[in-house]
Amino acid sequence: MKVLVVCRYKEGYEGDVAPFVKEQVDAVSSHGVDCEYFLIKGNGIIGYFSHLKALKNKIKECRPDLLHAHYGLCGLLANMQRKVPVVTTYHGSDINDGKVLPLSRVAMSLSAWNILVSRRALEKSGLKKKYTLLPCGIDLSDLQLIDKAEARRRLDLNVEKRIVVFPGAFDNKVKNVSLAKEAVALLGDSQVELHEMKGYSREKAMLLLCAADAMMMTSLSEGSPQVVKEAMACGCPIVSVDVGDVRERVEGVDGCYVALTREPNELAELLRKALAFKGKTQGRNKLVTDGLDNRQVAEQLISLYEKVCVG
Prior knowledge:
The chain is an alpha/beta fold. Helix content is 43%, strand content 16%.
């Protein structure tokens, strides 16, 4: 089977592809599926559709059995040709953004099959058929098993500080850092430090999650945030607002908490509990139980691909 993966060009990442897409494609490839990429560099509808001729030429050249598009606008472009069936995965921003959602819905109607990464996104999409609920998986590795002291040594972090990872850039408005800072301030503990996850390589990001005492997510919107799964794989305690599929992911994992509100006082109280948790959480085991090791996700994807190709 041959699959052409249609996705955004992401400068600075390996292969110029978002890590969660590349890891999924690598996992599928390891099961014997022949995968190639078609990368989109433009912005907006005009930017995307300017790639249509090149996409058609790529299809003629590599003759795929199907296209797998990531994000709604990529799915819309992929469906502008009707010779090869398209599977489209919607990752959250293409559902949560009211301006993009109508275009994503057009892609949904045209796609042979649709993948939603969270139940919340599925409900917002309005899809009733031709869909599978399947979050992106994560590669599980020995790096995620490193203990806190060793991780801090490798990153040259202060062993006395209580590190709370903020999963994103402070200047990203969607990540809502002001709420996280309010919650941390309410602890009244100068040893607690909110640490911005920005500019880290994949390896160092994993080390940071191993080094941390907790991670706090206060985003205004999410799909199925990979960083939550990465924190779970590293055994890092998690405190989060109820966003995306976080509640479902961490359900039943001691040391992980999802707030009922977006009140700083509640988040501060949950953060106290997370910081008091000793050792690594069992988040890694929960990922496997939920079928979210990338090897497990790859098997589900291949079954879906075969179903689409058969028609």
